[in-house]
Amino acid sequence: MTQQVEELRVxxxxxxxxxxxxxLLDVDRLQVEFRTRDGVAKALNGVxxxxxxxxxxxxxxxxxxxxxxxxxxxxxxxxxxxxxITGGEIRYCGTDILKLSEDQxxxxxxxEISMIFQDALSALNPVYPVGWQIAEMFRKHRGLxxxxxxxxxxxxxxxxxxxxxxxxxxxxxxxxSGGMRQRIMIAMAIALDPAVLIADxxxxxxxxxxxxxxxxxxxxxxxxxxxxxxxxxxxxxVVADVADKIAVMYAGRIVERADVFDLYGNPGxxxxxxLLESIPRLDQKGQQLAAIKGLPPNLTRIPAGCAFNPRCRxxxxxxxxxxxxxxxxxxxHRYSACHFAESVLSGEAVRTxx
Length: 354
Ligand code: SF4
Fold this sequence. Notes:
Blueprint: H1 5-8, E1 23-36, E2 39-52, E3 56-60, H2 67-75, E4 83-92, E5 95-96, H3 102-108, E6 113-116, H4 120-123, H5 130-142, H6 146-159, H7 178-190, E7 196-200, H8 208-225, E8 228-233, H9 236-239, E9 245-250, E10 253-259, H10 260-265, H11 270-277, H12 317-321, E11 328-331, E12 334-336, H13 341-346
Helix pairs in contact: 5-6, 6-7, 7-8
The structure holds iron/sulfur cluster (SF4).
C-alpha cells in the first residue's frame, strides 16, 4: 500500500531532535570572515538571535549586511576557504552544531534544518524531472521504493499547489514559471519535515501577486508543521504580515531586534527608520521615495565607530569614535545598537545632516 506523506515525515531510524522548552535555535555572538586577496571581510561581527517552535523571524537588511552568510553558517554551507567561522555558537536544540563533524552536520541538513534558496532555477537540477528530484529526498533519507517516493513527491507538489501535479512529475524545471519553480523548491525543502526552515529571499525574482501567494503558502506550511521559520529579505514590505519578530542587520551586526508591530510602528534605530521610509505607501502617491543616502560599507573597511555613521542623519562625534554597545534593551522585547536609541524611539533625536 502506498504510504501517505504524513507517515513519511519522521524517519524511524533517525529520531527528531527535541527543542529545549520550545527553543529551536540560539545563534550566539556568531563571527564569520572571508579571507580574500583584498583583505579580510568581516561578514558577521557577533550576531545573536533565537528562534522558537512555530515562530517566524524576519532577518532584514541591504545586500552585504550578512543575512545570507548567517543562513549559510546555520546550514553549514560556507565555503572554507575563503569563509571561516571565527567565533560564537549555533545551538540547535541545545547542541552547538559548530562542534559537530561534517557527517553529523549533513544529517541535520534537510531533516532538521532546511533552506529555500533565492534562485530556484539554479538550485534545481536542470537535467532531472522535478518529481524525481523531490522523490530522491524520500528515497535517500526515508529509504522508500521508487513508486512510493514518486507518490510522496506528487502529494507534496499538490500541497504546494502545483496545478495538475501528478501529470507534471516528469516535467523539467525550465518548463515551470518562476513562481511554480519556487513552489517546487519549497516542496523539496519541507519534504523531510524540518524543524527549522530558512527562506533566503524566496520571492525576490517574482511579481508582487506571486510574492504574496508564496509568502502565504510559507506561512500556512509553517503553521501546519509548527516549524521555526527564518525569512531573509531586503524588503520590509513582504514580511509585515507573516513575521513575529524582526532582526535588522547592517555591516554584519544586528542593529535592531523587535516584535514586528513595534518595529513597524516605531523603529528604534536610524537604519530601520530609513528602510521603513523607503517602502512605497499608498497614501503617499506622487511623492518621491526617501532612500537611505550612500551605500553599505565595504566589509574589508568597516568605518570606525558606528558602521552606519557615514549614512546616518543623527550621527555625532561619539558615533564616529566609539562603536555603540551590543544590542541593548530599550523596551519590551526591543533591542537597539545605537548610542541614541531612546531619542530615536521618542522622535527627539537631533538631525545632524541638514
Ligand atoms: Fe546613527 Fe550614531 Fe546611532 Fe550609529 S550610533 S545609528 S551613527 S546615531
